[in-house]
Amino acid sequence: MFKSLRRAGLAVLLATAVPPATARPAPVAAPQQRLAGLADFVDGVMAQQIATREVAGAVVTVVHGGRVLFTRGYGFADVDKGLAVDGATTLFRPGSVSKMFTWTALLQQVELGRVSLDADVNTYLDFKIPLHDGKPIRVRDLLSHTPGMSDVSGITAPTVDKLTPYADWIKTHVPERRWPAGTEVSYSNYGAALAGYIVERVSGEPFADYADRHIFTPLGMTSTTFREPLPAALAPRMASGYRYDKGRLTAKPFELFSSIMPAGSATSSGPDMTRFMLALLGGGGAILKPASVRLLVSDSVANAPDLPGMAHGFFVLRQAGPRIVGHGGNTGDFHSNMILVPEAGIGFFISETGGQGSYGGRTELTEALIGRLFPQAPAPRVAADEAIPAGAYRMNRRDYSRPANPAYDLAVTADGSNALTIVNDGQTTRWERIGPMLYEKTTGARAGGPYERLRFYGDEGQRRLSFTSLPHVTYHLVTP
After folding, report:
1. Could you tell me where the beta strands, DSSP code E, fall in 291-390?
2. What are phi and psi of 187, to 5 degrees?
3. Which of 85, 109, 146, 217 registers the highest number of CB atoms within 10 A of its CB?
4. How far apart are CA 276 and CA 284, in angstroms?
5. What does DSSP say about strands 427-435 and 438-441: parallel, antiparallel, or unpaired?
6. For residue 50, how many C-alpha atoms fall within 13 Å in the half-sphere facing its CB?
7. What is the dihedral of CA 5, 472, 338, 319, to 10 degrees?
8. For a pLDDT cut of 90, what percent of the chain falls above it?
9. How does DSSP classify residue 446?
10. Where are the CATH 3.40.710.10 domain residues in the chain?
11. Which residues have CB under 8 Å from 438's CB, separation 6+?
12. Which of 292, 282, 408 is CA-nearest to residue 345?
């Protein structure tokens, strides 16, 4: 949706949601006619993206009813060598989709009674997370991305010799606490890394070893690892990351995120991601109890009234008709999404690499699949004489130790009393009123959706702005 959000970190998920107040009935299972020809549909979208979006390579896999519908590779794993992506073997970086492995590991420890969701995180640490107004961060606040912390930068390493073990890094980079935990969602890589360290501490196993033994091996995910650099057996299968420069794609070195390993360091294949999705859709399989899976997909905290928010680890993309949850992941070079529709037994995973167009390509394909499988009608427009709270809005997810950059703010302008425009990074979108302080995007809208919505909320002096596609952050009105 907003171009500058690429700069916000590993995880930006652009998807869709239907506010309960304006939702319309929709089938809870994808009709068979919508599943028929789905692979050909994806082939068409990917062919267009490779031609127009600087996409070098991609993998797409879809599961339904306990089985794999298809796993396909597109484009090149190595452009210079002319090596095509093999959907069965080529490896991609899922970015922050890796966090779903970490939340799984954390809930395994909850099942074993080693961790309590309502405990102060300091209970399990060998260093101290400061209190805020005398109150701690609970374990469950990590799952809902509500630790109330500043974002933190410096999470990558330029070369292997510059890598800092994540267990050391998190002890020396504790972010400032900005507001009470459990109150406002602001996506936290640090919080997810902290969750992984809790798993390491209570299990007595290094986190990468733990993930191998208790998640990847039980599911047969032999091509998935948190290790950086890649083990020798996996490295030759890795798709290259790229930048688009002067009309050509240029390969980049393997990215290194070990400083926040549990938050985004995984590497995986399409077939391995199907094993993970099928386990969750099947009630947990060999890795979790059904109650833990239900917790992962159930609501926790939402920033805006009437808009979906966070589940526990997952983002809520659509509340009903059917309920859809998911998680996105962006490294510098790879752009991924994992989407689950538990009621329909459907899941899909996408990962693309290439120029900046692959970021938008991942989003475009996600929306196309949701729109094809579970179309929704636009909400009826509602006219009223409503004062639109125009102004500049600033994302709550940022590094507060650095001066805010107004260039990243959203500029909201009223267009009459029932519509508004938003300018972000030079791009303008238009939105029309569908309810009190509730608006639907009309720019780029298409029949069948998905439809993007925004909601203003909060008192006059503390105005907020949230989007259905961004349940993991909110925007604050910038006051003079």
Report:
1. 315-318, 324-330, 334-341, 346-354
2. -50, 135
3. 146
4. 9
5. antiparallel
6. 18
7. -130
8. 86
9. -
10. 3-100+206-373
11. 19, 21, 22, 306, 453, 454, 455
12. 282
> Cβ distance 196 to 166 under 8 Å?
yes
**Superfamily of segment(s) 3-100+206-373:** DD-peptidase/beta-lactamase superfamily (3.40.710.10)
Per DSSP, 148 falls in state -
Task: Please state the pTM of the whole predicted model.
Answer: 0.93
Q: Output the average pLDDT for the chain.
A: 92
Alpha helices (H) along 112-175: 139-143, 166-172
How many angstroms separate the Cα of 296 from the Cα of each of 61, 77, 312, 392?
22, 33, 5, 34
The model's pLDDT over 303-321, given as tens digits with 9 standing for 90+, comes to 999 899 999 999 999 999 8
Helix (H) or strand (E) run with residue 77 in it: strand 67-78
* 72 Cβ neighbours under 8 A, 6+ residues apart: 39, 42, 43, 59, 60, 61, 87, 270
Alpha-carbon span 211 to 262, nearest angstrom: 9
d(CA 58, CA 334): 9
Q: Amino acid identity of 124?
A: Y
User: Could you say which DSSP state residue 73 is in?
Assistant: E
